[in-house]
Amino acid sequence: VVATSVVVNSTVSNADHPKQLVFHIVTNGINYGTMQAWFQSNDFKGSTIEVQNVEEFSWFNASYSPIMKQLLDADSRDFYFGGYQDMNVVPKLRSPKYLSLLNHLRFYIPEIYPQLEKVVFLDDDVVVQKDLTPLFSLDLHGNVNGAVESCLEAFHRYYKYLNFSNPIISAKFDPQACGWAFGMNVFDLIAWKKANVTARYHYWQEQNADGTLWRLGTLPPGLLTFYGLTEPLDRRWHVLGLGYDLNIDNRLMESAAGVHFNGFMKPWLKLA
Fold first, then answer.
1. For a disulfide at 261, which of 4, 171, 193, 243, Cβ 3.0-4.6 Å?
2. Could you tell me the CA-to-CA distances from 236 to 13, 120, 184, 252, 259 in Å, in that order?
């Protein structure tokens, strides 16, 4: 709740016209009541805030979503979460439903918001420092996903995320293709539907049912799903690496529209 509040509060605090902003928040059943109460009892400069509970999405089920089917499968649970078996974790909180499904909702945005044409997607560990309104009028040149590329160093090229020894990957993708980041993205939902992006995502999740194409996370399937459909954004829109990378240029951070604490050290946690 604190993290999500940071995203909303920092966005409206830096917006030229906060009353024009509508925030769509999706959470799980554990946090839904608290999240709703928090956003109803605070005024975020007149912006509109909608909170939804993923567990009320009846369409998001194992017969429709491959990732839901995989994460509810016992073998997959061992595959994803085997390392947690010895820890004193409440079984409900260890459930894949609570750990992973919210991450995968980013591939279902047109299903969650069928009336919307364009959205700015923000992870819940982003702090906004500038007005984001210009993102809505950016020309994506027919692409679906506007994202900041992350291949300034070799690590963020496709071959680092995907198994190129598998012919399904090597036949269709360039191993040197530049990676990009989730966290602050512009999605053109009309272009998304035209390119049938969610079906592409389903295809790649089914191909990876045995976990051999990539290991974990939503970025590898994102790189596959949005391949050839991604428009590079100016890197000052979204600066990553906070919370673990000590070498980020201070001037870049200060000029950034959004800084992303995608490391373990979140400023709102005691750990940091």
1. 243
2. 18, 15, 11, 7, 9
